[in-house]
Amino acid sequence: MSDLSAPGFPEEEVRRRARAGAAAAFPPPGEYGRVLFGAEQRGDRYPDAERDPLDALRIVPPVFMPQRLARLIDLGREPDYRDVELDTDIGGFGSSLPVYVSALGSTRAAGGDLGLALSRQAGALGLPMVIGENVVPVNGYGRLGEAADRALLGRLRAYAGELPDGRGGVAVQQSTEDADAEVWNLVYSDPAALPLLETGRLAFELKVGQGAKPGLGGMTVLDAEAAAGLGHRYGLDEVFGDGRVLRSSTPGTFTAEILRQQIRLMRNNFPRARVWVKLHPGRDVAEAARVAAGAGADAVTVDGAEGGTGWAPGVFPGQVGLPLAECLRRLAVAGPPPCLLVSGRIWEGGRAVKSLALGARAVGLGRAALLATAEDPRAGLIRFAECLALEIRMLVSALGKYAPTALDRDDVWSRDFPGNTVTA
Question: Which phi and psi angles does 400 have, rounded to 5°?
Answer without folding.
Answer: 75, 30
